[in-house]
Every structure is written in C-alpha cells, then in structure tokens.
Write a structure and sequence with these properties.
294 residues, 21% helix, globular, binds succinic acid
C-alpha cells in the first residue's frame, strides 16, 4: 500500500525493508519539510530510492549535506577527482588498466563504517551507468536487510545472551574476508591507521527510532569480548547468518538515475558482482557522518 505525504508518495517494497519515494526532484530546491520526511522514511524503511534523478556531483553533495554532515571516505584513492566527499564505485579501467574507482565495493554483507569509532549514519549512491545481461535485465544489484527486524525475530534466550556484549571490529577483517572471497585483489594495502580496531556493542540502539539492531558482521567483527575464541566466532557467524536469510532481503535492481539512500544504524548491504566489462557500472557515493553506537 502506498502513502501520500503532502507532495511525495512512499511506496513500500514487498520485503521487510525498502521503499520508493515518488514525486521529489532532488536537483530542484527541496524544502526543509520534505528533507525531514525523507529522513523519517529512511529511518522507517532503512533503504529508500528516488528514481529518475538527474544530478551533477554538486547537486548530490548539496542534497547529502542537507541530510547530515558529509564525511570523506576512509579510502581517499577512490574519490572522484576534484571532490573530497564523492567516491566513485566502478569497474571501468583507465588507460593504464587501473580501476577508476572502487571496483569491488560491498562484496560482503556489511554496514558502512562499522570499523570506525563513529560509523557512517547514511550512505547515498547515485547510478550513472548500470550493467545489463543479454536480455536487458540489470546486473550488479545491491541487497539489503534490516538488522532491526532481525533483532526483533531473535528468541528471548538469544536476546538475553547477547544483551550488553561488546565486540572488536576492524577494516582489516573486511579485507581478510574479501581476499578469501577473491575480491580486493586490486586494492592498495591498508595503512596502520586504517587497520585500527574499535569496540562496538553487539546490539546497538538506533539513534533516532530507539530500535535495537544487531551490529555484527562476518568480516568487520573480529571477536566478541569476554567469550572464548571459538564461541565468539560461532556467535558472530550465527548472528550474521540470521540477519541475511533470504526472506529478509530487499534486492535493489538498479536503473540509471536511481538515488538510493540507506540507514547504516539499522541495515546491512551486499553488492552482487555478477557483471564484467564491457558491461560498465558507475556510481557516485556520498556519506553522512554518524555518532558513537550505544
Ligand atoms: C557499497 O557497499 O557501498 C557499494 C554498494 C554497491 O556498489 O552496490
């Protein structure tokens, strides 16, 4: 069922999360009330798409800055030249056969900035070029799950078991897992600063809705404090697998002009790498800073 909110319409997906917002042109002067309603929809549905947008980098950056405080990406080598807040995600190669952007972004279930003291609040991806199969169907989908819905579905025993637990997280863990999955081979090695470890709660509270959300991932979460290593590994795997069961997934099938936003406090996502050149994929990504998880 769709709901009309003054000017725009919100059409929820069939999945446990995700909605399309119709009737907003981000390149125009979007008023404050509309921005607030978009944020409310983002908190409710965790991932929202605005189709058929026509955005310059400046317009994407300006809109993102109205949603929150822009955050530069942790891997500056992937920035669009001339823009300190705009990351290029792409499989396109330059004349030296080097990727012009992040070629393997998101090839594992994760939530953005999980390895930072203050993980990213929202991410915004704008589709410039999308790969297709021979039948014209889009490739390179992005999958999402709600970690709030996943938490709600846990047994009372599991909720009690994980209450108050904390875990160590690191980008190095993400790289290890990507390497095991044969991705990340084209990435520059991490610096010592980029490898630093941070501690977050295993269950975080959404800073705006108050929902409890599972906050572990198989790559970024290295160990749960206070548990023997094997038990910690098993619990990370069990909670991660629980979050990403098939019936939990919203699959975003991209169209050129999509502006997709997701809420990193209450979701995880995964980029499907089922395409290759000459099929090109090109995205511009901006990120909004978040707060310390509690
Ligand atoms: C990401 O994880 O930020 C990238 C998602 C995508 O490219 O689909």
């Amino acid at each position: 069922m769709s709901a009309t909110l003054e000017m725009e319409t919100v059409v929820p997906s069939q999945a446990p999360l995700g909605a399309e917002i119709q009737g907003v042109d981000i390149s125009a002067d979007v008023d404050h009330a509309t921005v607030q309603r978009i944020k409310a929809a983002l908190h409710k549905y965790k991932v929202i798409v605005l189709r058929d947008q026509h955005l310059t980098p400046e317009q994407q950056i300006a809109f993102c800055a109205r949603i929150g405080t822009l955050e530069p990406h942790v891997l500056p080598q992937y920035l669009v030249p001339g823009y300190k807040d705009l990351v290029r995600i792409s499989n396109v190669l330059d004349q030296a056969s080097q990727p012009i952007g992040m070629i393997d972004a998101g090839r594992l279930w994760h939530t953005d900035g999980h390895f930072q003291q203050r993980p990213n609040m929202y991410s915004m991806l704008y589709a410039l070029e999308i790969p297709h199969d021979d039948a014209g169907e889009p490739l390179g989908a992005t999958l999402f799950v709600s970690t709030a819905v996943a938490y709600e579905g846990l047994s009372p025993e599991m909720k009690q078991r994980i209450a108050g637990l904390k875990a160590v997280n690191s980008l190095a863990g993400v790289y290890e897992m990507l390497k095991r999955n044969n991705a990340a081979s084209l990435r520059a090695p991490l610096t010592e600063a980029q490898k630093r470890e941070v501690i977050h709660p295993v269950v975080r509270t959404h800073p705006f809705t108050g929902e409890k959300c599972i906050y572990v991932g198989k790559g970024a979460t290295i160990r749960i404090l206070g548990l023997p290593e094997e038990e910690s590994r098993q619990l990370i795997d069990e909670l991660s697998d629980w979050c990403v069961r098939d019936e939990m997934v919203y699959r975003h099938r991209w169209q050129v002009g999509d502006l997709l936003m997701w809420d990193n406090s209450g979701s995880q996502h995964f980029a499907v790498g089922d395409y290759a050149l000459p099929q090109r994929r090109m995205m511009h990504r901006t990120t909004v800073a978040g707060s310390v998880p509690f």
